[in-house]
């Protein structure tokens, strides 16, 4: 069986890793370079690096910090934030990224996914979808969860996969930072709709939340989290041991 991936997320603002609740009230955590090195050496399967204010501030991603971070890791690195053109894809790939995550840029120009997939391959293009419930419907948000696009989320994700996105990160705004578990209903809906790898993001508060995720959404490919790893509430090595004990395939540390 294909192993389930465990992915720490580095949300970077002004060159520092930060973490909030429901995409708000950001608090300083650490240096992205130091954290990336730690996770690379301690069992993470991949890393995600988001420059979380690049889109909202209308600027390009911080390439200097990204380059230094990429030099410290020996596992796949996905990078997002301020990705609006294929030139942005090219720039972050040259900084050391393995995959490029696009959200607001694809909402403004869905053809960006087609262009990037043709140039760099589907496996390089990751759709990051920030989703919240609005009047009982899953809707897509842009600019780091600040703006409701009014678009229905599942249809949007399907369109992007059809255009060439080779992986989808589902960020649940409703559960982000709340630490009450992943958004199982939302994740099932996405997994039922597409046939590419899906990564769950938002809501992890304990080791058990990961076990519940892989048990209740068997088609999910990976669990992504931030604060539970950053603050030592969940050890990746211990998590993977528990996964193995529960018959969940994992790359053991």
Helix share bin: 25-40%
Task: Point out poorly predicted stretches.
Answer: none
Strand content: 25-35%
Average of per-residue pLDDT values: 91
Characterise the protein shown here.
The chain is an alpha/beta fold. It has a single domain (about 5-245), classed as TIM Barrel (Alpha-Beta Barrel). It is about 35% helix and about 30% strand. It has helices at about 30-40, 65-70, 85-95, 105-110, 110-120, 155-165, 185-195, 205-215, 225-230, 235-245, and strands at about 5-15, 15-20, 25-30, 45-50, 75-80, 100, 125-135, 135-140, 145-150, 165-170, 200, 220-225. It has an eight-stranded parallel beta barrel with strand order 1-4-5-6-7-10-11-12, surrounded by six helices. β2 (about 15-20) and β3 form a beta hairpin. The chain starts with a strand and ends in an 8-residue tail after the last helix. The mean pLDDT is about 90.
């Amino acid at each position: 069986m294909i192993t389930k991936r465990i992915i720490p997320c580095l949300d970077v603002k002004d060159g520092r890793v930060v973490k909030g609740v429901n995409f708000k009230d950001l608090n300083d955590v650490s240096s992205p370079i130091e954290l990336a090195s730690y996770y690379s050496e301690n069992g993470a399967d991949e890393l995600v690096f988001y420059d979380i204010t690049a889109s909202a501030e209308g600027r390009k991603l911080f390439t200097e910090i990204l380059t230094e971070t990429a030099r410290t890791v020996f596992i796949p690195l996905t990078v997002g934030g301020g990705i609006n053109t294929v030139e942005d894809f090219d720039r972050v790939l040259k900084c050391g990224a393995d995959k490029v995550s696009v959200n607001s840029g694809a909402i403004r120009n869905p053809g960006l996914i087609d262009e990037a997939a043709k140039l760099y391959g589907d496996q390089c293009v990751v759709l990051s979808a920030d989703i919240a419930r609005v009047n009982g419907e899953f809707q897509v948000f842009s600019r780091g969860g600040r703006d409701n696009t009014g678009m229905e989320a599942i249809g949007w994700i399907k369109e992007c996969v059809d255009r060439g996105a080779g992986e989808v990160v589902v960020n649940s705004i409703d559960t982000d930072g709340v630490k009450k578990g992943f958004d199982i209903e939302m994740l099932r809906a996405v997994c039922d709709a597409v046939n590419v790898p899906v990564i769950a993001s938002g809501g992890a508060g304990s080791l058990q939340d990961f076990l519940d995720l892989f048990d209740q959404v068997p088609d999910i490919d990976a669990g992504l989290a931030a604060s539970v790893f950053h603050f030592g509430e969940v050890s990746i090595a211990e998590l993977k041991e528990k996964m193995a004990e529960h018959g969940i395939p994992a790359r053991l540390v």
